Amino acid sequence: MKQIENMKQYAGILRLGYLSKNLQPMLHQASIDTPGYADFLENMLIKELEQRQLNDYRRRTKLARLPRAHELDEYDYKASSSIGIRQMTQLRELLWVDQLYNLVLMGPSGTGKTYLAGGLVNDAIKKGYRAYFTTMADLIGVLNRKEIISSAMSTYKRYTKAHLIAIDDIMMFPVQKSEAVALFNLINHLHEQCSIIITTNKSPSQWAETLDDEVLATAILDRLLYRCEVIRFEGNGYRMDNRKTFLEKE
């Protein structure tokens, strides 16, 4: 027992978390299966690696702040004619992220833009990319507070090192001039270094009205649309067509 406790301690010092917690049951199983030394060591290392990969995935998923619905395996093609199976397959391969293309999802509220954006970020995380999901409101909050709150600066730094960022509901509401400039500076920094997904219910011509600055709106759009696929969503909102109630009808 002393030897096992020492081994657990050594594993902890070496930051082998899975081995530290599971050494005793692994030794017990080895006494039953009697593997060779090399096989036993390989199995321990594989288990440790798998646990680290799982922990890393969980950490990146938490940081990504995905919307509640984001599993594209459950995408309802009947509810939306904007995306076909072939297009979805191509999007989920994420080759466009490696090629630094952007994606603009444009259309009325409730047509599936957020679901698709969140789903692609989720797929990217599974494949090991640094990917994040944020709303325009939350992003503006980070930009406003990054110089005075350390957590906001940490979030901002993560964004600047991302492979993929989804910005949901961009230009949904008017922003102040300083906020618009900060948004431009971020997008300009990310330009041709990171892929960006934009969801919006405003046409490009309406962006200038939201920002109250045509020159700034043009500069932002110029960088987003340079290498970009635009997908237009149409039809009634999914939530309105599938509205749920709780009162029983007479």
From TrEMBL:
> Which Pfam family, just one, is annotated for this protein?
IstB_IS21
Q: Which UniProt keywords apply?
A: ATP-binding, Nucleotide-binding
InterPro entries of this UniProt entry?
A: AAA+_ATPase, DNAC/IstB-like, IstB, IstB_ATP-bd, P-loop_NTPase
Entry keyword annotation includes ATP-binding: yes
Q: Which residue ranges does the record assign to the AAA+ ATPase domain? A: 99-232
A GO MF annotation of the entry reads: ATP binding
One GO biological process this protein is involved in is: DNA replication
**Which SMART domains is this protein grouped with?**
AAA (SM00382)
NCBIfam families the record matches? IS21_help_AAA
Family designation: Belongs to the IS21/IS1162 putative ATP-binding protein family.
**Protein name according to UniProt:** IS21 family transposase ISBf1
Q: Which organism is it from?
A: bioreactor metagenome
